[in-house]
Amino acid sequence: SNEFIFIDKGCLRVFWERDYNEVTGWFAFEDDFFCELSSFIPQQASTFGVQAIEDTTILYITRTEMEKLFV
Questions:
Q1: What is the DSSP secondary structure assignment for residue 53, as one 8-state letter?
Q2: Could you tell me if 3 and 60 are in contact, meaning their C-beta atoms sit under 8 angstroms apart?
Q3: What is residue 63's DSSP assignment?
Q4: pLDDT per residue rounded down to tens, the chain (71 residues)
Q5: Which contacts (CB < 8 Å, 24+ apart) does range 64-68 have?
Q6: Cα(51)–Cα(24) distance, rounded to whole angstroms?
Q7: Residue 45 exposed, middle or buried by CB count within 10 Å (0-12, 13-18, 19+)
Q8: What is the pTM of this model?
């Protein structure tokens, strides 16, 4: 994951696959911040999937853009 996300409207579902089934880990709702930290910090591919389960509007900042704020 390369983005830090704010959910302006809607809902996201975070899931992974186990034994050919999807397992829902959590939901991120309107006015929540969302970032898959185990992927974002080391900049590795995520093992989680993210799905909008309703019409969703997000705002995001990339890691590169965020790092520029701390210089």
A1: S
A2: yes
A3: H
A4: 788 999 999 999 999 999 999 999 999 999 999 887 777 777 887 888 899 999 999 999 998 998 899 88
A5: 64/2, 66/4
A6: 10
A7: exposed
A8: 0.79
Residue among 47, 63, 40 at smallest CA distance from 14: 47
Q: Where do we find the tokens 């965020």?
A: 66
Tokens 């790092």 map to which residue?
67
Long-range CB contacts (within 8 A, 24+) of 13-18: 13/50, 13/51, 13/52, 13/53, 14/48, 14/49, 14/50, 15/48, 15/49, 15/50, 15/51, 16/47, 16/48, 16/49, 17/49
Return the number of other C-beta atoms located less than 10 Å from residue 35's C-beta: 19
**Of 69, 71, 43, 57, residue with least CA distance to 6:** 57
Residue 7, classified by CB atoms within 10 Å of its CB into exposed (0-12), middle (13-18) or buried (19+), is buried
